[in-house]
Amino acid sequence: MSRTVAEPVRTHCPYCALQCGMQLTPGPVPAPDAPAASVSAPAGREPLPVVAPRDFPTNAGGLCQKGWTSATVLGVPDRITTPLVRGADGELAAATWDEALDVITEGVRSVQAEHGPQGVAVFGGGGLTNEKAYTLGKFARTVLRTPNIDYNGRFCMSSAAAAGNRSFGADRGMPFPLTDLGGAEVVLLLGSNPAETMPPFVQHLAGAREHGGLVVLDPRRSATARLAADGQGIHLQPVPGTDMVVLLALLHVVVAEGLADRTYLAERTSGWDDVVRSVAAWWPERAETVCGVPAEELRTTARRLAAAAPSRGGRGAYVLTGRGVEQSSQGTATVTAAINLSLALGLVGREGSGYGCLTGQGNGQGGREHGQKNDQLPGYRKIDDPAAREHVAGVWGVDPAVLPGPGLPAVALLNALGTPGGPRALFVHGSNVLVSAPNADRVRERLEALDLLVVCDFVPSETARMADVVLPVTQWAEEEGTMTSLEGRVIRRRQVTTAPGEARSELWLLAELARRLGSEVSFPTDPAVVFDELARASAGGVADYSGLSHARLDAAEDAGAPGLFWPCPAPSAGEPEHPGTPRMFLDRFETPDGRARMVPVDHVGPTDDVRGDAPTYLVTGRVLQHYQSGAQTRRVPELDRIVPEPYAELHPQLGLRVGVADGARVRITSARGVVEATARWTDVVRPDTVFMPFHWSGAGSVNRITSDAVDPISSMPEFKVCAVSVSPAAHG
Ligand code: SF4
């Protein structure tokens, strides 16, 4: 028996942080009492039809190629449908849930007995729902009692998060609705390429493009930079690793030409005088000698930005950062320089202008608010704050003293695996670190040194294939929950179909593991109930969800409000419901004195800078068709056919100099190792730079040679730039 549900279901794309609205129309849905086997064969399942409604303001009817084909991934032929356990023969083989969970329970107990609670570590993902991210953090701290939990969001926007927390006392990627950008006269995009990574975003740049005010900072003439260069703005093309110098020079011009908003600075900020001193040495002509951007372009940009500021009668200006400036060993300082510039012009905490970060992963924002980070508890609370520990411990029903303190951040955690004193067992949830982590060959070595590797995934990713136990989990259209978009908009993810075979939600498997490991802490498995607990845990924190629930989000959407913005505290008795906070900082910043902190910063340069034996910059990035490690999108034939393999972009001058022809195989060598790929000659890259997207494994997996040096404040790895030599491949 099957029932047919004709009504389309509103949900959101599973991929990036734009969380485009979409509708899925369910096909035949198995009856609830149907045996699992009758729904277990994903191969050949027809993908659910995807429709892009116009009423979700972020994408307004647009989707990118990833979004249009997102339903295909649910039914890929190699979808994992049963638990897998590695046998004595070294092969992964199908097992029952009981068998798999027994292996894990025994393995965890054994490691804990020998190495203590910190011997078990957890690596989460920025694609998990809020409910799953919250439960994972709670499981790590109350069941495993390990401090060692972090997640792949550390690789995504952690520098912007650290800078936002320091300057504003809060980190909400965009503290204003995305639609606010539409009327802006100038948008300064720093190291972001939304025309390729999130194409529906580009519609919100219409106002800036119309006014010739789209300014893109990128060493590569990306698809977004080409929009700016097309008479609709300015493309600033710095030497890789010198974004900070551009920003210091822009602020120098603002100071030198009296363009700062002195009233705003006096009323709403602290630290201005120190920041003025810090940019004195970066006049445009000097900056040009380091960053390569012509001095006049720097002056023009600063003047355009200042003229668009509302306080000077302009139509609005926004400064937005992306991975290009954040994935750096000076990432927090570079974002701070962008924030200082924004504050100097009085852009932040005003309608019609602002600073924001374009978070990348689907739930990169929510994933960092609910306790997956090594140093945080739900509500974006600090784990070493006694009041925060007491509040969250109260919600969890445990003694605050049992909660561990801060653990290792992602790169340090991965590098410590299997080392003396380091974790011996690892849970990985929704992350493919063998492709997405820097210096990935070293990560492979560390994973091989573990006593127990457990991977929860729905496809056999490169990391899953190394696991001792693989647990098949539900995905996206198979589950209920919430996500938080890059705007801080909390939205509903809805179930449209059932998961194949034995796949189960992480909420269920973590509850089951908690029980088997003897925990008395309650782990609800209904996502709505988990959300209610998450909301209570977040109450009073910076990211306060306590006024939200699945029911309220559903009702708001039915009433035409698709999602509500945090902070959204629960009302006091007799008070109306809080409406949510689309725009933050309008009255005050979340700092003790309510003022934004301006922090002086200076340029240091990349950790792995070019030199005689490695004279070329390597810059990494993304392509339209693939998402993150490519574990999902490489399995979509329509996407894979367009970009099926790694490639390296070389300027023709570089190709000629090193003897690598267009279409030939090229070898790229860094201090970490060697990769090979097909060379593509193009003048979108600088003659001193080679560019590679990072979505593949194998010989062309560029993260095998990227640097795992990290930012000292955010622990963000320096993905974006390192020094390499370029030569013909042996069989090129
Ligand atoms: Fe999905 Fe992002 Fe593409 Fe929108 S832009 S369809 S959220 S991948």
Number of domains: 4
The separation of the N and C termini measures 58 Å
Our count of helices gives: 24
Q: Give the CATH topology of the largest domain.
A: Rossmann fold
Bound molecules: iron/sulfur cluster
The largest β sheet comes out as: 7 strands, mixed
What strand order characterises the main sheet? 7-6-20-19-18-8-9
Q: How much helical structure, as a percent, in the residues?
A: 25-40%
Let me know the number of strands. 30
CATH class of the largest domain: Alpha Beta
Strand residues, percent: 15-25%
Shape: globular
The whole-angstrom Rg is 25 Å
CATH architecture assignment of the largest domain: 3-Layer(aba) Sandwich
Helix/strand class: alpha/beta
Protein name: Assimilatory nitrate reductase catalytic subunit
Domain Molybdopterin dinucleotide-binding: 617-723
Domain Molybdopterin oxidoreductase: 79-515
GO molecular function: oxidoreductase activity
